Amino acid sequence: MTRINETSGGKNDEFSDIQAKNTVVINLSKDNPDPEKLEYCAEVIKRGGLVCFPTETVYGLGANAFDPAAVKNIFKAKGRPADNPLIVHIAGYDMLNLICRGGENQRNRISLLGKEYWPGPLTMIADRDPAVPDEVSCGLQTVGIRMPDNKIALELIRLSGVPIAAPSANLSGKPSPSKAEHVIKDLFGRVDVIIDGGDCRVGVESTVLDITGDIPAILRPGAVTLEDVIKVLGKGELPDWKKAPKKGETPRSPGMKYTHYSPDAEVRIYDGKDIGGVRSFIAKEAEKEAANGKKVGIFTTKEGAYAYDGKRFAVTCAGTRDDLLTVTHLLYGALRDFDKKGVDVVLAEAFPQTGVGNALMNRLYRAAGGCVIDIGDN
Question: How far apart are the first and last CA of the chain?
Answer without folding.
Answer: 61
